[in-house]
Protein 1
Amino acid sequence: MCRWLMLCCLLVSSVQASELDRLNFITEEYPPFNHVADEQLKGSSVDILDAILQHNKSRLNRSDVRVLPWARGYDTTLEYPNTVLFSTTRSRNRDSLFAWVGPLAAGRVVLLARRDKGIRIDALSDLIEGGYSVVALREDIGAQALQEGGVPDNQVRMAVNNVSAMHMLAMGRVDLWAYGEEVAEWLLQENGHNVADFESVLLLTEDPLYFAINRQTDAQLIQLMQDTLDQLRAEGSLPRLD
């Protein structure tokens, strides 16, 4: 045990705290985890990032995070070392594409429908056979789940952002919306809709949210972020995950 602790200390001490300043952080509008309100970046995942940076005396803070459309941020993180994207669902098919630090929060991705439509779906095959239309965002976990499930392209509409997708569902332009359940409900409420008028009709994935990091990033920086997150959570500085 003592030897293991010494190795951990050597690993952390071998990376200067200022080295975290080499990282570039990207996020999107994905409330309540990360979103802009009153011209400031807010949310539970943003708070976690801020705590990690402050603990390591980094010069960076939430004001240095770039807010980009999801697909652009996703592609940028895949391409450029030292790039960190959050909050990202860590799914089986994404696992080998990035390095990961987390978890940050639980995540449920569902098919959401208007309750008055009375749509009942037990599997994606029901969506296909019923000819239902569904809106999603490119490179989002919902869109990837639809593709993996064999949903034909002619039944899927790609929205430019999550607010546009929400309006498409609310206005009846599509039958379903494939997206994070908590985020979808937050957006509906914030935009004046009664959340009770909508319902989740199928669970697509239930995977946690993480920081996704370009795989060419220095492994010691990634480990420093993970060790700091674990330490802050163990100390009670960050809420524990259920």
Protein 2
Amino acid sequence: MARHRPASEGGYQRGEETRAAILLAAVAVFGECGYERASTRDIAKAAGVNPPSIQYYFDSKEGVYLQCVEHLITLLWQKMGAAVDAAERAVGDGTSSDQMLIEGAIGILGAVLSTTKDTTQMGAWRVFFDRQQAGSCPPSATVIFERKFKARIDSVMRLLIARLSGFEVGDDRTILHSMALFTQGLAFRAHKSRLLSALNWKEVNHKEMEMIRGIVLAQARFTLEGLARQS
């Protein structure tokens, strides 16, 4: 992380505004180009700053990317924190019924598939997130994302599935069910062009996302109820 900070109060505020502008521009550039193809010159141009500003505030392209990931994690917890907390309470209570456990899992998946209409800024973050999930990022970013976000999600989903299915938490089937449930909604964004072509849609707006959300959650509920019946 960059060590430089403007000295005066006014300079500090301008510095933070410049830093924020670079981050927003970087999210859009990384989302459009991917990490490897993006350059600090591209980011500086999009932010309306001189290229040396990138090194001044972030040290390197990787430094900018890691700060984007840190901010993305903050946004994701704002969106998903309450649902994950509720699921952890349900799975931590030995008296929770299967239905309570299922609702805990559905709550997490519903948060992932939030139907809040994208602003231009949030749309850029979603594209950035999709590339991050696809592995178009430096290894250091994957480590941060796993440690500060994904590990907790994986843990609670596996615990929920283990309770419902009777499998051990570390059983391959538990892990595969967890991965399948968590990624099925994201797949619609990762393969957006195929989705639009197959359904003759022009765009995925609020109405279309509601339909996707309803189908994915219904399918997830069917799977979870099936696991509970088989246990």
Protein 3
Amino acid sequence: MKIKFKNTSLIGNRIREEREKIGQSRNELADKLGLSLSTLQLWETNEREPQASMIIAIAKTLGVSPNYLLTGETDITANEKANDVSHQTSNSLPNDSDENFVEIEDCRDVRISAGNGGLNDEYLEFNTTKVEKRWLDSRYLKAKHCAMYLVSGDSMYPTLKDGEEIIVDRSKTDLKDGKIFVLNNEGAMYVKKVQVTPYGIILISQNPEYSPIKLDASEMDNLIVIGQVVRGYRDF
């Protein structure tokens, strides 16, 4: 679910201006936030809007309030500003008691690369996020098996975009030809389309600028299948 805020046309400008004020490069800020450089660039050029949770994280990193990034206003206290973000999102987010939604694990802090592999060296504790129960039921999916991840990179474009949220069914670990999977290959996390061959598998990017990754049977011993992608901006 993407949350739209009022008066956000210049949010990217404010992120860039505050970053430059503290002498931080775009690369440095992206690293601190655990983002790809291209995602931050899209935000700073106002081509894409960050989510509410990221606005709070960006504000904390830059030493400003979330409300300032959202509106440019500086005449309310930091606590009021944080509350302001909550008020603006409360009508869009599902209520805890809403039976139409269920919780799944939120793994968006894990870097999964639609490119050359995202490394994750730290142990991460995960929160939960909510998705529509009706959608899960219609696909015969169980919430306990599903998790939300964030795509980093453009190798799966246009099927999956940089910064796109995807839902992964982690009970589906048998590789199927033509399906998209999240995989861990020697510590590097990928999201790729799988082609099964008599000799192993090929991890295929949708973007022709990226070469396929070929793994023979012996190399597959180091491959961990996290799960199958079942939803992005569309169902799979």
Protein 4
Amino acid sequence: MEARQNYSPFQGRSIPVMHSTPPNKKRSCFRKCLCWTICLLLLQVIVVAITGGILYLVLRPKLPKYTVSKLQITQFSLNHDHSLSATFNVSITARNPNKKIGIYYEGGSRISLWYTSTKLCEGGLPKFYQGHRNTTQLVVPLSGHTQDAKGLLTALLHQQQQTGNVPLTLRVRQPIRIKLGSFKLPKIKFVVRHRLLVDGLSEKNDIRIQSSSRKYIRNAVKDRKHQLFGNLIA
């Protein structure tokens, strides 16, 4: 009886050996770089937070304060061509409440007086330095010329007759520089909106301010390295 011989399809053939795929060196390098970048960013955030905390504790920075103490109209008249000529003297009190911080008021200041969406007049603060815990009184002249103002005057008169007051908005855009000892930081631009409620507008008259409120809109720092200090006092 013949012995039965089993036949295998792999008989006489070599079976290939499967090797694991070697790690991709480029992918591994990318992951390492990503991890290092994240670690450095986290470290930078921690350093900035610690620096900000130290500066705040040492300097106790506070925003400068501005109040409008008086408004005086020297000209507010309708011309023959229905244009409006307006000139105001605005008395502003600027206070620096900081013990260790001086303030340089730089050029490029813009102050404008508005009734609703109409700009009545504009001007600017002079350049000056304000020392620690200093209060400075300023009288700022504002002047302007508005075309086709007949409807504007009618609206103002109607507003005054109906409510007994006129709402005005004083917008201030002021570049300043902070002084720490002998070191000056880059410019910070403050935008302040000062809402005023006055008893009326008439030429050659002191305006009685019934109420006022102010709001700091934003501050911008040219040099991002010093944005930390701008955020501290905002």
